[in-house]
Design a protein that fits this description.
The protein is mainly alpha-helical and 176 residues long. It is built from 9 helices and no strands. Mean pLDDT is 91; it is low at 6-15.
Length: 176
């Protein structure tokens, strides 16, 4: 008699079975993936469609934003680099966010997309939101931490990565 303690070696990751807790564990990263993917797609599209943002100067421009945060940034040299071509930097961030968001949402090259998201969040934390006090009011650090589980785990379920992996296994005729 085991008195409710599991003594088997059952793993839901190997055979797809298990109880609701096992299922919840398997799908635990999916809400995070959807949230980050949709948010970064929205952020990229918002920047690309904002006529004021992609300008060297003026209210709401990437250039003015970078000049505003330059002296309070943890790494002012990173801001100086952006200021060499603020419009190009704005496009790079917008397209980067879009690529990261799409890759994360559909689960294609998910670990690489998550790493890109983490790097974008890190660069924004070290520049734009570094001076936010208290630190937990700034969201870029929280986004950086949110990306890390996806960097580690990728998108093992409901993703193009998983579909491609299953297809490769099928072609190889077994498990790898």
């Amino acid at each position: 008699m085991t008195h409710g303690i599991r003594t088997d070696t059952h793993s839901p990751y190997l055979d797809g079975g298990g109880n609701w807790r096992d299922t919840a564990t398997r799908y635990a990263l999916l809400p995070l993936r959807v949230f980050l993917g949709v948010t970064f797609i929205y952020a990229g599209l918002d920047k690309l469609t904002d006529s004021a943002f992609l300008k060297d100067s003026g209210s709401g421009s990437i250039g003015d934003l970078m000049r505003t945060v330059r002296d309070s940034a943890a790494i002012p040299d990173l801001v100086d680099l952006a200021l060499k071509n603020p419009v190009g930097f704005g496009y790079a961030i917008a397209f980067g966010e879009l690529a990261v968001g799409i890759g994360t949402l559909i689960g294609l090259l998910a670990r690489i997309a998550a790493l890109g998201g983490a790097l974008i969040s890190l660069s924004l934390w070290l520049t734009v939101s570094w001076a936010t006090e208290p630190y937990y009011y700034g969201n870029d650090l929280a986004y950086l931490m949110a990306w890390l589980p996806l960097v580690l785990a990728g998108a093992p379920l409901l993703s193009l990565d998983a579909a491609l992996r299953a297809r490769r296994r099928q072609r190889a005729g077994g498990y790898r």
